[in-house]
Amino acid sequence: DAGVTQSPTHLIKTRGQHVTLRCSPISGHKSVSWYQQVLGQGPQFIFQYYEKEERGRGNFPDRFSARQFPNYSSELNVNALLLGDSALYLCASSRSPSRGADQPQHFGDGTRLSIL
Amino acid sequence: AQSVTQLGSHVSVSEGALVLLRCNYSSSVPPYLFWYVQYPNQGLQLLLKYTTGATLVKGINGFEAEFKKSETSFHLTKPSAHMSDAAEYFCAVSELSANFGNEKLTFGTGTRLTIIP
After folding, report:
1. Do B43 and A90 touch (CB under 8 A)?
2. Which of A39, A44, A64, A97 is deepest in the core (most CB within 10 A)?
3. B49: Cβ–Cβ under 8 A, 6 or more apart, which residues?
4. Which residues of chain A have pLDDT under 50?
5. How far apart are alpha carbons A30 and A54 in whole angstroms?
6. Chain A contacts of B41, Cβ < 8 Å?
7. Per-residue model confidence (pLDDT) at position A94
């Protein structure tokens, strides 16, 4: 089975632009989470979606938004890009978001976003 | 809120030597704990996890970790380091979101492991 796939793998934007990152979860997984990993740091939680509904949001500004589609794929959108948005953006999928499900999240290889 | 502290941002060991990467957590509820490995230009790969039951957890590539509640620790070990173990390692704790009881991961800042030939 294919793992979590993300596109594009690399992206270069300039300040003030908008970007859309895409994620396809593992087949059968209905929950998708997004993380931001700044160079030299651990990943930081941005969003979690399940059944097309937002189920959790991290401490990120409203410039960050996301959505999940009926096929459970997801998009992360960032508006008015800042230099500080340069990071590796990771998508993770799991069968459900419930802690009781006793399962880890599976990560994609990420999209590296560079802001000039 | 739950948190994770990884002691030592960089660890170097000789090939064949013991690997010990330290992780301490803070949690108000019984934690679910994870170790992930990240190779350059790649995403995160799960090494092992602790949820309930046996406190000594064995993972892939010969790694294991022991959950010690009294010390709030979940240190990662491997008896004999291999050159292919060179990577960034992240400890994480599962945290319940405020709504719906959903799970999110809170990560430590990572430990870069270097293997000396």
Report:
1. yes
2. A97
3. A104, B32, B33, B34, B35, B57, B59
4. none
5. 12
6. 109, 112
7. 87
Show Cβ contacts of residue A21 under 8 Å, excluding neighbours closer than 6 positions: A6, A7, A8, A11, A75, A76, A77, A78, A89, A91, A111, A113
Strands in B1-117 per DSSP E: 3-5, 10-14, 19-21, 24-26, 33-38, 44-50, 56-58, 64-68, 73-78, 87-96, 103-107, 111-116
Q: Does A48 touch chain B (CB under 8 A)?
A: yes
Average pLDDT over chain B, rounded to an integer: 90
Q: In this structure, are residues A11 and A116 in contact, taking their beta carbons and an 8 Å threshold?
A: no
Token output for A29: 């997984």
What is d(CA A40, CA B9) in angstroms, rounded to the nearest whole number? 9
User: Given the DSSP bridges, would you call strands B111-116 and B24-26 parallel, antiparallel or unpaired?
Assistant: unpaired
Both tokens of residue A101?
A: 């499900």
Residue of chain A with shortest Cα separation from B43: A109
Local structure of residue B42 (DSSP, 8 states): -
Q: Residue A102: its pLDDT value, please?
A: 58
Of B41, B51, B108, the CB nearest to A42: B108
**Residue A112: Cβ-neighbour burial (10 angstroms; 0-12, 13-18, 19+):** middle
Residue type, A58: G
Is residue B3 helix, strand or coil?
strand
Tell me the pLDDT tens digit for each residue of B59-86. Answer: 999 999 999 999 999 999 999 999 999 9
Size of interface A-B (CB pairs under 8 A): 74
Tell me what pLDDT residue A25 has: 96
Give me the residue label for tokens 């939680």.
A45
